[in-house]
Amino acid sequence: MSKGIVFVSTTLLVVLGFLAWLFWPSDEEQIEALFDELSEVASKTEDASTLSDAMVVKDFKQLFAPEVKISIRSKARIAGEHTNQGLAQLYARLRVASSRMELRCEQLQILSTEKEKALVAVKFFASWRGKGGNIVREDAHSEVKLEKVDGDWTIREIHYLKN
Question: Is 10 inside any structural domain?
Answer without folding.
Answer: no
